[in-house]
């Protein structure tokens, strides 16, 4: 008798060990798949979620994710379903959880429900018709997990099986992990959006400080940034460099905060001494921006935006490839906007005149490739 009990206990222990090892293996796979998701788009993130989930949850046949938009849950991703058909489904906050166990205090977890038949009284005729076309009207099992953020349900992750199979406990725990990953993803995106907003507010505040001093350069920083991005994209500069270019371009004149207002707004030509004072602004920019953590590349680009391709620029007299291509793009954009804008000492130049100057200065003040791109963009 004791032998039978011991054998039973041994079998149970062995089963538990196998279950734990299987779960550990699957957690390891998930960890490797989601080690770097900070820069993934929402679509790419959910694509990875479902691809990995369908590998690790053997009962999974179809799945979908609903996101809360205002007061309505709408599908934003699916696997196995016709998304065009699925996207016609939309549920209120209450409707989304009609068939599922749910409570206001529900923690992030995964739950299983077997649906023999939808209750027609709880849904519209159109919803019932779509359920039937999707195969989710009757006789299926759903493993689901509400997604929460700041104590609010913001999404619903569902995995379905249509072969009357029960989802295993391992599968339930795996889906719970995915639910937590999704919750973390949304938390990260919200944090990034807040940080980006704060970042832009700081940048705009710095730019405004310059424009208050120099009435003729109002909007100049934004225009230089826009032109720089236009040039960079046309030159196929890698996408991960565009944000750096945009920020450096909008801050390129930040050093002019230290330039006397009477020099910035002088209506006649600058004297040699006054010009030497103006030429200090890249160094002043370096001092200001150099104190901001993570701005190292931006500092370099703002510092070099007056360097010329032939070495005749300032502050270092760099030439050719010594000047980062991003700085050469900003330099050309800055010159273009300066020439096509009204200044205290002259009227705005025509595009035709400015393009002729770029042709003349190709390989001198301006990088040949940047010049050719500028001509293509503004003469065609």
From TrEMBL:
InterPro entries: HD/PDEase_dom, HD_domain, HD_GYP_dom
Domain HD-GYP: 195-380
Cross-referenced SUPFAM superfamilies: GAF domain-like, HD-domain/PDEase-like
Ranges for domain HD: 217-339
PANTHER family the record matches: CYCLIC DI-GMP PHOSPHODIESTERASE PA4108-RELATED
Protein name, per record: Polar amino acid transport system substrate-binding protein
Naturally occurring in which organism (per UniProt): Anaerosolibacter carboniphilus
């Amino acid at each position: 008798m004791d032998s039978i009990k011991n054998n039973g206990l041994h079998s149970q222990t062995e089963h538990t060990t196998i279950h734990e090892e299987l779960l550990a293996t699957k957690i390891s796979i998930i960890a490797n798949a989601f080690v770097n998701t900070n820069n993934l788009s929402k679509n790419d993130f959910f694509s990875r979620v479902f691809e990995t989930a369908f590998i690790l949850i053997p009962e999974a046949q179809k799945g979908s994710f609903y996101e809360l938009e205002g007061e309505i849950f709408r599908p934003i991703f699916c696997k196995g379903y016709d998304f065009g058909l699925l996207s016609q489904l939309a549920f209120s906050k209450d409707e989304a959880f009609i068939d599922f166990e749910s409570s206001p205090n529900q923690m992030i977890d995964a739950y299983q429900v077997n649906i023999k038949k939808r209750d027609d009284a709880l849904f519209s005729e159109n919803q019932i018709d779509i359920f039937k076309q999707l195969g989710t009207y009757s006789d299926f099992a759903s493993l689901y997990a509400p997604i929460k953020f700041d104590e609010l349900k913001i999404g619903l992750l569902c995995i379905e099986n249509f072969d009357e199979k029960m989802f295993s406990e391992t599968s339930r725990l795996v889906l719970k992990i995915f639910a937590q990953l999704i919750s973390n993803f949304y938390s990260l995106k919200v944090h990034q959006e807040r940080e980006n907003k704060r970042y832009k507010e700081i940048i705009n505040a710095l730019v405004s400080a310059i424009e208050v001093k120099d009435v003729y350069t109002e909007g100049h920083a934004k225009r230089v940034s826009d032109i720089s991005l236009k040039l960079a994209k046309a030159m196929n500069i890698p996408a991960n460099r565009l944000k750096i270019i945009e920020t450096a371009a909008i801050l390129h004149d930040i050093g002019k905060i230290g330039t006397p207002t009477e020099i910035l707004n002088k209506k006649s030509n600058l004297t040699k001494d006054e010009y030497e004072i103006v030429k200090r602004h890249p160094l002043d920019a370096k001092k200001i921006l150099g104190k901001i953590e993570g701005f190292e590349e931006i500092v370099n680009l703002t510092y070099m935006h007056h360097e010329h391709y032939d070495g005749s620029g300032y502050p270092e007299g760099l030439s050719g490839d010594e000047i980062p291509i991003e700085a050469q793009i900003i330099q050309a954009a800055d010159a273009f906007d300066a020439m096509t804008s009204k200044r205290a000492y002259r009227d705005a130049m025509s595009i035709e005149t400015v393009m002729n100057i770029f042709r003349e200065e190709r390989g001198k003040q301006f990088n040949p490739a940047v010049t050719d791109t500028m001509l293509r963009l503004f003469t065609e």
